[in-house]
Amino acid sequence: MHLLYRVLLLKIVFIYAISDDAIKVAETLERRVKLFGDAILGFSDIEQIYSNDTIVSFLNFTAWNHVDEIVQILEERLAKIVDVLKDNRKIIEKAHSNNEFKVFRDPDLCCNVQTSDLELDLQFNRMVAKSLCFLRSGSVASTSLDKTYTNVFRDNSEKSMFLLWQYFGDASGNYFQYPAKKSACDGKAWNDPRFQQWFVHTVVPKKKNVVIVLDTSGSMSSSVNGINSTAAAPTRSKVAQEAAMTVLGTLGTTDHVGVVIFNISAVSSKCSPTSDSQGIHMMVPATHDNMGSIEDLITSSIPAGGTYYGNAFLKAFQLLSRSKQIDPKRFEDSLDMILFLTDGMPEDSTRDILEELAAGQNLMGHSVHVFMYALGNEFEHTNTPRSFLVQLADQNNLVLNNSFVPQWPILSSLQDNKKPVGPVGNVSFIGNVDGQRLSQIMGEYYSHFQVVSGANVTFSVPQREPNMGLKMTLSLPVLDSGGQFLGVTALDVHLELTFYEVAHFHLGKDSYAFLVGDSGVMYLHPELALGDTDLEVYTLDQLEPGLSPDAIYNITNGREGQEVIKKSVEQTLKSAICYYKPLSGFSANFTVVVVIFEDDIKQKRLQSADSNSFPDFLYHRQGFINTSVVGHDGVCYRDQALVIPANATIKFAPGSFWDLEKSLMYEQNKSYSEAHSSFKNTTGFSQHAGVSESVAGDVLLMNKIDEHWKVPTDAIWRYIGTENGVFKVFPGTLVPDILYDPREDLWYTAAVGQSQKYMFITHPNQNTSIVTLAKAFHQTSKLVHGVIAADITVQHLMTFLYNTAVRVGHFTDTAWIIMDDKGSLLMKLDHTGPVQISAHLTEILPGVANWLLQKGVLQIDWCTDVLSGHAHLSYSLDTSGSVVDPGSSDPCLSFKLVSVPNSNLYVIIYKPSTTCKSSQTLCSCKERCSVCDHQKRHTCQCPCKCSSTYMDRCTHQINKTSGYRPCPGPHKHWQMQSLDSTNKSSTVQPCKPVCTAISDSSECQATKGCNWCSGGHYKKLPLCSERCVRDRQEVKYRLACENSTFQLNWTALESKVLQIAKKRLKLSSRAIVQPQVSRNGKGGVSVMVGTNDESEVPLSWLTLLSDPIKVTVWDGAGRSTNLSLVTNLTEPTDARVELELRGVNFTHKLEAALTLRNYLQKQVHKLVEGVTTTEIARTVSGIWPEEDRISFWLEKPKDLKRGEFTAQLQNFMALNGSDMDTLGRNETISGVTASHHYSSLCPTNCSRR
User: Fold this and answer.
1) Is 132 in contact with 147 (CB distance < 8 Å)?
2) What tens digit of pLDDT does each residue of 194-217 get?
3) Pairing mode, if any, of strands 770-778 and 759-762?
C-alpha cells in the first residue's frame, strides 16, 4: 500500500510539473522567439521603415483592360516567334533549291561535339556549343544545310530569350540542330527525326488511336535473317519489339495506344483507373506513366505456339470499341488504326478472320485503317498468303497495290459485300534481307496519310525538357522547289517564359490565370506544376468543372466573354468573375482566361516618402561580370558560389519589368552595358530601368535596411522579397534562375499564409543543415507587402532553443520534442543536450500522434497531384492556443503539447518510456499509404502517397467532388550560382566560415570574427558566434559639458543615478539594474543593466536609459547649479562637422583673397543642403576655415523625431571623396568627421566653442 501510494504520488507530481512547464514554455518561448527573430531579421526596424516611410495609394483596376493587355503582349510575342520559324523554313528551302546542301563530316556529328566547345547557357540551363551539329539515319554520306549557316540560328537565339532548340529533319532521316549538344549517333530508329513526335505531328497533326498487334508465335524466336540462318542476328521477336517501341515514340500525349500480343490466344493491354484497382482492357493516353506499362507488355512476351489472327483482331477491336464507348471524344476527328505484325500465315479460318474484322469495323463506324506487316521470306512461296494480307489491308476498297484484290465474301457482319469494310490501309512484305529495317518500315506508318503542306504552324502540347521545365514545339513542313515534301523545321520555346504573364499571374491572394489551346487542351494552369515532373494533358472541362457548358464552348472555339463562377477557396465557396479572350492569328486557338475575385481587385502603388534621393544599388549580375563594379578584392566564394560579403544585391522578378524580353536579356547579360547604365541612372530610375514606380519604391526603401543587415547576427543569408517581385539578399550573390520570383518561393508563401507568425522552415530535400526563419511585414495599409527572412544553421537554432529550454525545463527524466505545425520534427532536447531529428511525429512518437489524431488536434490533410495521379497525405496541428493534456496513466500518453504563440512551432514535453498500455502505439510508416481512403480521418500513417481516388488514369478524368484539393506546386528554396572548379579564379578566396557551423572551441577562437560564447545565455550549451548574446550591459553616465570646471562627488550621485535607472525600467519585469563598482576614469558613474532570463538586453532599454539625467550640485559658497548626465547613446543636441581638404591652406588663401570666406560659407551651405534635411541645413553656424580644414556647427531642430538627428549626421560621411569649389578651383574632400555635443544641456558658462 505504501509503495502504491508513492508511485501514485510521483505520477501526480510529474503531471503537475509538466503542466507547470507547459505554461512556462509557452510564455518563455513566445518572448524569446520574438527576440531571436527580431535579432536575426531586424524585423521591427524593417516593418517600421515600410510603415512610416511609404506612401500607399490604390489604382483603379479594370479587369478587361488587364486581360486585353496580356493578350496583346502574347500576340506580339508569339507572332515574332512564328516569324523566326517561317524565316528558318525560307532559308532551308532556298539553300536546297540552290544546291547548297553539303555532305556533313564526322566531326560535325552531334556525338562528336567537343567538351572544350561547350559553355553554360542559362537560357538552356545546361552546357551547349554555339554551333550546328548533325545526325544521319545511316552510314551513307548525308547532306544537309551547311555549317556556315550557324550565324543565322545564333542570331535568332541571341535576339530572343524565348527560343530554345532550332532544328530540321528531312524525309531521309537526316537532322541538324542549334545549339549543339552531345547526342548519340547509334543509328537507332528512335533517334531518327522521322520517328519523333514533333516530326510526325507536323506531317499528320490529327490525333491518333493506334493498336499495335504483335505476333508472338514460336517462329518469332527465329533469326531475323531467316529460320535456317546461322549468321549472328537478333531474333524476329527482338526486332518486332524494337519496331513497336519506335511506333510508341511517334505518339504524343493527345494520342491513344493499346497493344495486343497473340499466338494461339491473344492478350491485350489493360488500364487501371488507379494503381490499386483492377485493370480494364482499353486504350490509354500515350503519357509517360502509361507508356511504361505498355512497354512492359511488349518486352515481356516469349515466342511460343501457333498463329491465330482472329483472336488478335477481336482483342484489337475490343480495345478500340470499349475506349470509344467510355470516351467518345477521343475518336472525334481522329485517325484510328491497327498495326498488325506477323511472320506467318494464320492457322485459323480466313473467313473467321474476315468476320472478326468486319464485326469490329461495324462497332467502330468503319473508321479503322489496317496496316499489315509480313516479316520473313515465308510469304514469297505463293501468292495466296500475300493476297490474303492485301485483302485484309484493302478493307474491300479494291484499290490497294493497283493489282487484283479479292472481294470480300458476304458475312454475317457484312451483308453488302460491295461496300468497303473500312478505310484502305497498307501491306508491307519485309524479307529476311530487310528484317533489321522493320523499325523504320513500321515507324513510317503515318506517311500513308496525306502530308500537311500548308502554311499553318503546328503547335505541340506542353512537354518537359530536362533542366528547363515546360516547352512547346512550333513546326512547319518544308517543301522542295517542286512542292514535294522535303522535311520538317521546328523550334522549341520555353512555355513558361513565352506565356509568362499567364504562368506567373499575380493579383491579390486568390486570383489566377490559365491558358487553353486547341480542343480545350490546358497549356498552363495553377494545378499543373511548373516543376520537373512529366506533364499529362488535361482539358478545360477537367480542371475547371465549375464553368458552364456555354463558357467551355466559347473558350474552346475562340470566343470572348465573361462569366460569374463559384470557386472553393480554403473550404469556403467564393464568387469570382472568369474573363476569357482568344489570341488571334494562330492555328492553336490559344485563349487567355483570368479568374478574378472581388477581394483582389485593389492594386497598390508604393512610393517612398523620401523619393527625392534615389540610391545607387548593385543588381545581382553586375557585381560578378563587370570588375569595375566590384573588384576581386571584394568577392569571395562560399558553398562553391561567388559572394560579395560587404554588399547586398537585388534581383527583379521578370514580371517586375514592363518589357519581359528586355529583362531576360539583362539576366542573360546579352545587353549588360545597357542594363548597367539603366540601373545606374538613378534619376527617373523606373523609366530608365523599365520597371514600375512600386518597384522603384521598394529599391529605395530596401536601401534603408542595409545598415541593419551589416550588424553581425550569425545569419548565413538575409533576404527580403516584396509583393512587387523585388528580391534583395545579403551578402550579395548571383541568382542563376532567370525566372526566380520571391513571391513563389516556399519561405515567402509560408510567411504570407500565416502573416502574424515567425515561420521556421526546414529543407529536407535540399539542405538539412539550415533552417529558414521568415516573417511577413505590413505597411500602413495593414496589407502584407513582403517577407523578411534569413537562413541560419540548425546548430544555431538548437543552441538557442536548448539554452532557453533549460530555464523552464526539468530534463532529469523528461524530454522535449520541437516540431512545426505540420508535425515535422526539428529536434529533441533532453539531459544529454539537443539532437537534430528529420522525421515526423507519427514515426518518432506514434502513441502521441495516435491520441492527437483521435482528438482532432492532429488533422489529416489529403491533396491530389494531377500530374502523377497520386494522393499525398500530410498533417496539420491546431491546439487553438490551449495546453493539450491527455491526463492518462499510460506512460506513453504522459505528455503536454503546447504551441509557441506567434510562431509555427509546437513543443511536446513528455517522459520517455518503452512501456505503453495503449494498443494504438504504432503508425504505418511506408512510402505507399496502407490506407488510401480520404474518409478515414483517424488512421495513423506517416506522411505517404497512393493513387488518388479522384483521378482516373484510363479516361484521364478528374472527379472534383467534395474533399478534392490540388497539391501545391513544387516550391524550391532560392539557389546561388554554383561555380565550376575549373572556372574559379585563383585570386578569389574562400569567404569567412560561418561561425555557428563550428563546434570546436579552439577552431572557433582561431577563426577571425568568431567568438566562443560560453557564459550567461550560453552556460549550458556554448556556441561559436559572430556576436554573443549580451545579457548584461554597462551604461556609463558622464557630464554633458566636457569642459566643465565643476567638481562632483560621484559617490554621492551613484545612488541617485541607480534610483532613476530603476524607475525608467520598472515596467519591464525582466530588467535587472545594479550599481557598477568601477567608475569612469574621467569622472562619471556606471550602472549594470541585465535580463533575468539571460536574453539579449533590448536596445529599447538602453535608449530609455540614455535620456539625460538632471542633477543638482552645490559649490563651496552654497550656490546650486543644475547639470545633465548623458551616455554614449544620448541623442546629441548639436554637432561639430569637420571637412579635411589635403593640400589646401585656407589660412594663406584667406590672407590673399578677402572674398574667399563668404564664398566658402556659401559652398558649405550648398554641400550641407545636398546631404541632409532643410530643417537641419538651416542650423549651420560657426563656419571656420583654417589650414587644411573647414569646420562648422549644426543644431538639432526642436521638432525632429528621436534618432533622426543622429541618423542625418551619418549622411555627412557621403561628402568624403566629393569635390568642393574653393573659388575657381575644385578641391577633393579627403576626410569627414562629425562629433556629438550637448551644448544645450550645459550651463551658460560652459561654452561649446
Assistant:
1) yes
2) 999 999 999 998 899 999 999 999
3) antiparallel
Residue 297, CA distances (Å) to 322, 337, 341 in order: 19, 19, 15
Mean pLDDT, rounded, for 845-854: 91
Contact 134, 174 (CB under 8 A): yes
The alpha-helical segments, DSSP class H, found in 560-705 are 622-625, 660-668, 672-680, 685-689, 693-702
Where does residue 296 fall: left (phi above 0), alpha (psi -120 to 50 degrees), or beta otherwise? alpha
Task: Report long-range pairs for 935-942 (Cβ below 8 Å, ≥24 apart).
Answer: 935/963, 937/853, 937/859, 937/860, 938/853, 938/854, 940/842, 940/846, 940/849, 940/850, 940/853, 941/842, 941/873, 942/840, 942/842, 942/843
Which amino acid type is present at position 328? Answer: P
Within 1129-1248, strands assigned E span 1134-1140, 1181-1186, 1189-1195, 1219-1221, 1226-1228, 1231-1237
User: Residue 712 corresponds to which amino acid?
Assistant: P
What is the value of pTM for the model shown? 0.78
Question: Measured between alpha carbons, how far is residue 288 from residues 20, 465, 682 in Å?
Answer: 57, 13, 51
Residue pair 178/165 in contact (Cβ under 8 Å)? The answer is yes
pLDDT digits (tens, 9 = 90+) for 736-795: 787 889 998 999 999 998 988 999 998 877 778 889 999 998 765 567 889 999 999 999
Number of Cβ within 10 Å of residue 386's Cβ equals 18
Cα Rg for the chain, rounded, in angstroms?
39
Beta strand ranges found along 286-425 (DSSP E)? 334-342, 368-375
CA 477 to CA 447: how far, in whole Å? 13
Quick: pLDDT tens for 701-751: 888 788 778 788 889 999 999 988 999 999 888 887 878 899 989 999 999
Helices 288-299 + 236-249 axis angle, to 10: 170
- CB neighbour list of residue 790: distance below 8 Å, 6 or more residues apart: 40, 41, 713, 715, 716, 717, 718, 719, 772, 773, 774
Q: Kindly state the cell numbers that stand for 910.
A: 513528455
- Which long-range contacts link 1098-1102 to residues 24+ away (Cβ below 8 Å)? 1098/35, 1101/1065, 1101/1068, 1101/1071, 1102/1033, 1102/1035, 1102/1127, 1102/1129
* Report for 98-107, 398-407, 422-431, 463-472: range of highest mean pLDDT: 422-431
Dump pLDDT digits (tens) for 259-291: 999 999 999 988 876 655 667 888 888 877 788
Which H or E element spans position 16? helix 2-41
Q: Give 97's strand partners.
A: none
* Chain position carrying cell 494562330: 586
Q: Which helix (H) or strand (E) holds 73?
A: helix 63-97
Cell matching residue 395: 478493307
C-alpha to C-alpha distance for 131 and 133, rounded to whole angstroms: 7
- Dist CA 198 CA 570 (whole Å): 40
Compute the residue count for the chain.
1249
DSSP 1094-1160: -PPPPHHHHHHHTS-EEEEEE-TTS-EEEEEEE-TTSPPSEEEEEEE-TT--HHHHHHH-TTHHHHH
Q: What is the pLDDT of residues 45-75, one digit of tens each?
A: 777 777 766 665 555 668 888 899 999 999 9
Distance (Å, whole) CA 626 – CA 676: 9
Q: Which of 297-301, 895-899, 1069-1073, 1172-1176 has the lowest mean pLDDT?
A: 1069-1073
Quote the cell numbers at residue 1112.
Answer: 543638482
Exposure string of 557-575, with b = 16+ CB inside 10 Å and e = fewer, is ebeeebbebebeeeeeeee
Contact in structure between 167 and 177 (CB atoms under 8 Å): yes
Asked if residue 630 has pLDDT above 50, the reply is no
**Residue 979 vs residues 520, 624, 637, 733, 987: alpha-carbon distances, Å:** 44, 12, 9, 12, 14
Write the single-letter amino acid at 663.
S
> Which residues are bridge partners to 494 per DSSP?
471
SS3 1215: helix
